[in-house]
Amino acid sequence: MDMPVNVPVDDPNADTEWNDILRKHGVIPEKPPSPTPMIQEALEQARQLAHENRLEGKDLDELAALEDEEDEDFLEEYRKKRLAELSTINTASVYNQVYHVQKPDYARDVTEASNKAFVFVLLTSSQGTNTESRVLIEIWRDLARRFGDIKFCQIRADLCIEGYPDKNTPTVLVYKDGDIRRQLVTLRELQGPRTKAADLEKVLLEVGAVTHGDHRIQKRNERSEDAEASYKTIKQGKSSRTQDDDDSDWD
């Protein structure tokens, strides 16, 4: 009767001649393939994809500035692609302003209109003292101007929904194809009173109202400057009202 023999194995994963002999005779299992080649292949694919998409999101002026750096045919292909995108956007840009809707017209101006385009509705504070509402009103004007293929509407919350709590304003409702696709109650999901247009642009992307690479999405430095200017405007307006209220106490 053959007795089992304990074969000494220091490290079954080591690349040694002894381990090769043991694997050949089935004493130890085959060594699993090294993940390194797969990782390297994935990294190379990521680098290749990044190189191919290096012009994504650049506007026509930025593409023109790259004429001496990029292959002419490749650059021309992207230029045609960007012009086609611009043409599509310009054709669909029929709104370009904030629409102040009335409750009797809500179904027509919002629900039915969402069958043609995304409709973003802003329910604002009824008292005019809500800082977040004022911040979002400024952002609403900016977004409506830049994203003309999306309909931006605005209505005072208490005129839209009787008894709607002012503490829940501003409220954003996103409609598409007659349904509410997203809602934000106050700006706590974003950055509160320091919410920027960039934060709402992310919402546009999340719901599919715009696509990644859309040239209308602001560059980071432009966002910071616009947001800071908007916040200062809001603060200055609030200070002026406070001063007026203090002055009125002396009358």
From TrEMBL:
Location of region: Disordered: 215-251
Residues that span the membrane, as ranges: none
Biological processes per GO annotation: protein folding
Domain called Phosducin: residue spans: 43-214
Name of a matching Pfam family: Phosducin
Biased segments, Basic and acidic residues type: 215-226
Taxonomy, superkingdom: Eukaryota
GO terms for cellular component: cytoplasm
Cross-referenced SUPFAM superfamilies: Thioredoxin-like
Homology family: Belongs to the phosducin family.
Name recorded for this polypeptide: Thioredoxin-like protein
Native species: Lophium mytilinum
Lineage, highest ranks first: Eukaryota, Fungi, Dikarya, Ascomycota, Pezizomycotina
